[in-house]
Every structure is written in structure tokens, then in C-alpha cells.
């Protein structure tokens, strides 16, 4: 039986790093936990929003004891919040920053890797063994859009008091538009726990205007070896195609800010510009608006293997569709999406 003197040790994830919080017991309060987090991270207790702990179905108040929160030795939590210096910087004038590029130059590697037998065998094993929890059933006749999260939909390195501040602008408008023609899947190179937290905090899993089909984590990825970069983890779409026969290279497109993630399916991937430094760029980033137009434009294409997604910004659709697509390029009244 647990004693009130039992030591509680927690791992807190914040700004892309993990911090171990020690020195607390089951009799310690959430407020004391926040004070301990403040010592480790520098984020004031009153600015912290802790995700991953619940009391009576909601975030616990500061006076709730940790012993009431069903904390396990392996418990990890996520914290949202900003340091005072960062908040001060956010209020300063926004400089005109260039796009940040961070990717391997892998184009020469793609052809030699895509059809290697040992990697195809790994994909087959994932198809057999991977457990996929369906959120909503696939719809007949819909193409498939596979989306990364970090730096694609969400700036996971910057700090803020809410996930909405780090959400890529026009996210919900983009997903509403895409859902008309595509079933939507999320595939992130992290644990499912964090995927679920991020999607909930961004309001994606609760938005009534679109639905996610399923979500995949790092457990669905495979490791491959490239002559130039050694062993890397990638997201082979064959894992999805092996489980869902209605989708293939002909009707699937994947968005990711890192091209190496779709090295096994280079023709099906579109490298999105990474969304970083959200506080500086959220009022001028329109990547999702433009990509919504592209998805609508190619929705009538029977075979996506005839397209070159690297040239997506120069794609031209039939004249009769242009008026509709042009309207999609008009931004909503707010400069960024609401979390819904």
C-alpha cells in the first residue's frame, strides 16, 4: 500500500527537452510540482500549463495532492509555458527572416533505396504486426493525405502558454478543405502519447468539421541504411498500403518537413516548409493556404504517380476550377486559426 511519504519522480517534457523532477511525495501538491518545474526550466509557476495529469477529468488545481492523480513511476507529462525573457522578445518588432532549411540532400539516395528487399521485408513485418487504432472508418472513393506534426502543423520547439500559439496558421481551414477530397492520417516520429496530447490541445481530434482516420507513431517507422548518412528512421507508406488496399501510390500524398522521412516513397511525398519560431512567423506563414489549393487542384487526378510534387507551387489546374481555387487563397478574417 502506498504511503503519503512515498517519493514521486516525474519526467517533464518542455521545449523539446526532458527534465526529471525529484524531491516530491504523494503529499506534495500540484503547486509544489510547478515550483519544482520552475527551478528546472525557469518558467514561472503561474505561467505553466501541465498536460498529462488529470483530476476528475480536467487539469488539476494547484492545491490538488499528487497522491490523487494516479501517478506511476514511469509517468511523463508535458508542460506549456514561456520564460519571462522569451515573452519580452515576443513583444519586440518581427524581423523579416528567411526560410530555414534543415534536411539531408538525399535525392541521389532515393532510387537505390526504395526497392531494397531487406527494407521491403521490414515493411511487411510492420503490416503484419502493427496495431492501428481507427478513429474513423475510411470513406469510399477518398484519396489519402498523411501529415507529419512537428514543424509541419506545430512548432514543437518554441515555448508558449498554449498549444494554439504554436499552431501553424490556417490549420483548421486547411484540414476542413482537405477533408472534402481526402481521408486524413497523422504520422509523427514520436510516441503515441504525445501525438494524442498535441492533437487534442490543437483541437484537431474534436473539430466537428473534419475527422482523422487514424494516427501512426514512431513504432510504425523502419530503420534503413544510406551510404552517405548511415542509419536513419523513415516513414514507408507501404505500411499503410499493406493494410488498406483502397490506397496506393496512385491516390496517396504525404506532407513532411523532412524529405528523408519519405525516402522509401519519394514520388508520394511533398516537402513542406518547416514552421519554426512561431511567435515571429505565425502572422505571415501561408503555407497551408497554398497547399489547400494544391490538394483541391489535384483531387481529380486519377494517378498521383504522374505528378511531380516538388513542383507543386507551379501546378496549374483546368480553367473552370481556378475561380474556386482562387477563393481558397483568401485568408479568413483572423490571421491564424483558432483551436476550436
Automatic annotation (TrEMBL):
Q: Which spans of this chain does the record mark as coiled coil?
A: 106-133
Q: Which GO terms describe its molecular function?
A: metal ion binding; protein serine/threonine phosphatase activity
Organism domain of life = Eukaryota
Instruction: Return the InterPro entries for the record.
Output: FCP1_dom, HAD-like_sf, HAD-SF_hydro_IIID, HAD_sf, Ubiquitin-like_dom, Ubiquitin-like_domsf, UBLCP1
Task: Name any cofactors this protein relies on.
Answer: Mg(2+)
Could you tell me which residue ranges the FCP1 homology domain spans? 138-298
Cellular compartments per GO CC: nucleus
**What's the protein here called?**
Ubiquitin-like domain-containing CTD phosphatase 1
- Provide the species name: Sinanodonta woodiana (Chinese pond mussel)
Amino acid at each position: 500500500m502506498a504511503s503519503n511519504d512515498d517519493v514521486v519522480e516525474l519526467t517533464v517534457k518542455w521545449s523539446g527537452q526532458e527534465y526529471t523532477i525529484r524531491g516530491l511525495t504523494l503529499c506534495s501538491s500540484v503547486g509544489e510540482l510547478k515550483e519544482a518545474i520552475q527551478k528546472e526550466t525557469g518558467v514561472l509557476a503561474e505561467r505553466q500549463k501541465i498536460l498529462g495529469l488529470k483530476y476528475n477529468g480536467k487539469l488539476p488545481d494547484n492545491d490538488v495532492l499528487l497522491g490523487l492523480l494516479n501517478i506511476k513511476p514511469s509517468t511523463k507529462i508535458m508542460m506549456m509555458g514561456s520564460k519571462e525573457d522569451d515573452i519580452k522578445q515576443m513583444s519586440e518588432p518581427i524581423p523579416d527572416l528567411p526560410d530555414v532549411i534543415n534536411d539531408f540532400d538525399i535525392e541521389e539516395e532515393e532510387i537505390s533505396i526504395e526497392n531494397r528487399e531487406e527494407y521491403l521485408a521490414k515493411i511487411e513485418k510492420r503490416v503484419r504486426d502493427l496495431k492501428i487504432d481507427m478513429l474513423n472508418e475510411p470513406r469510399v472513393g477518398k484519396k489519402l493525405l498523411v501529415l507529419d506534426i512537428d514543424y509541419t502543423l506545430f512548432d514543437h520547439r518554441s515555448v508558449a502558454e498554449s498549444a494554439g500559439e504554436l499552431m501553424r496558421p490556417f490549420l483548421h481551414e486547411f484540414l476542413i478543405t482537405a477533408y472534402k477530397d481526402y481521408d486524413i492520417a497523422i504520422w509523427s516520429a514520436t510516441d503515441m502519447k504525445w501525438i494524442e496530447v498535441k492533437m487534442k490541445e490543437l483541437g484537431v481530434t474534436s473539430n466537428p468539421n473534419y475527422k482523422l482516420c487514424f494516427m501512426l507513431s514512431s513504432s510504425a517507422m523502419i530503420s534503413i541504411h544510406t551510404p552517405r548518412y548511415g542509419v536513419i528512421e523513415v516513414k514507408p507508406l507501404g505500411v499503410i498500403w499493406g493494410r488498406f488496399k483502397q490506397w496506393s501510390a496512385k491516390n496517396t500524398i504525404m506532407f513532411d518537413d523532412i524529405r528523408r522521412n519519405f525516402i522509401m516513397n519519394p514520388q508520394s511525398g511533398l516537402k513542406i516548409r518547416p514552421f519554426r519560431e512561431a511567435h515571429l512567423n505565425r502572422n505571415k506563414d501561408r503555407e497551408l493556404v497554398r497547399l489547400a489549393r494544391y490538394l483541391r487542384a489535384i483531387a481529380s487526378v486519377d494517378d498521383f504517380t504522374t505528378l511531380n510534387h516538388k513542383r507543386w507551387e507551379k501546378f496549374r489546374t483546368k480553367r473552370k476550377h481556378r475561380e474556386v481555387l482562387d477563393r481558397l487563397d483568401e485568408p479568413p478574417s483572423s490571421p491564424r486559426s483558432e483551436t476550436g
